[in-house]
Design a protein that fits this description.
Layout lengths: L2 H13 L4 H13 L1 H17 L9 H16 L1
Helix pairs in contact: 1-3, 1-4, 2-3
Bound molecules: zinc ion.
Length: 76
């Protein structure tokens, strides 16, 4: 799994609807990628703050910015 796939699956992961195989790949990526770990941590904090998954707040624009951020992190 790469960072882009993880970002796409994070909502399913937090909702607990990720298939078992994807769940394992998701957590394997988290163990080796501090950026996605931090991203998940922030998503989880948002979820707890709102009491639900803010699906409509994750617009394509926001997702695009996140993916750009991942790419720039990887360049460092
Ligand atoms: Zn990652």
């Amino acid at each position: 799994m790469d960072c882009i796939e993880l970002v796409e699956l994070v909502t399913d992961y937090l909702e607990g609807t990720l298939p078992h195989a994807d769940h394992n790949r998701f957590e394997a990526h988290l163990r080796e990628c501090p950026y996605c770990y931090e991203y998940l941590r922030q998503m989880r904090a948002t979820l707890f703050a709102l009491g639900r998954i803010p699906a409509e707040s994750v617009s394509p624009t926001v997702q695009e910015r996140l993916l750009l951020a991942f790419r720039s992190w990887r360049r460092d």
